[in-house]
Amino acid sequence: xxxxSNTVLNSLKKIYYFNFSGQAxxxxxxxxxxxxxxxxxxxxxQAFLHNSISKNVDGLKAKNxxxxxxxxxxxxxxxxxxxxxxxxxxxxxxxFLTEMRSKSVSRKKLSEIAFDxxxxxxxxxxxxxxxxxxxxxxxxxxxxxxxxxxxxxxxGYKFTKKxxxxxxxxxxxxxxxxxxxxxxFKSLLNQYAQKEKKELEFKVLNNTEEKxxxxxxxxxxxxxxxxxxxxxxxxxxxxxLASEKSCEILKLV
Length: 253
What we know:
Elements (H helix, E strand, L loop, with lengths): L1 H18 L4 H11 L6 H7 L19 H22 L5 H11 L2 H11 L15 H23 L1 H11 L7 H6 L4 H11 L4 E11 L2 E10 L2 E8 L2 H15 L4
Antiparallel strand pairs: 1-2, 2-3
Helix pairs in contact: 3-7, 4-5, 4-7, 4-8, 5-11, 6-7, 7-8, 10-11
């Protein structure tokens, strides 16, 4: 009886949102994008709201944009990707899995996925940013994380994981393609340093060993200033992760 009542209630909600809510177009597009009808539509509206149009709302900046949802979605996305990689590659080591996860959750990859999904069509941000294509791509990538955060709050982890598996991985994110794609961020960073005549150094910041397992923290030092760091079970992995972060900061990727 309860299930029948919920079905009727959801049907009435759809009729209202699609025809009488004043934002029928958004609700229809969202339903098409997600493949389901949300319980809490407000979360999804907030997921597309950039802080550039909420900065003038006194006392509401933290609540009236997608930054908090982005923070949550980042953690959920990272966990789901880590779990999927762990199960897909049962015989690969920590270094391989770490590098694959790093590629999958990078700013560049998130922006690519967001644009492939068409999230840029739903973004709400200040018009002064619109001509800055790099900024818009970054905003779209952040909105993807915020959307994942909204789905998690609305539907829970199990549902969110299924959504990522069915709607993103395999369609917009191909692990095997990433595996075969060699991205030597350290080499890219070296090329940048040579071109700009800057001194580049990879410095071991910390080296610990616990239960015979070593962990390295490597810092990227450019002209005497540390710009990023990476952690790994080998110097090579730590250097690659630190190099990737540096390339993102320097906008080389």
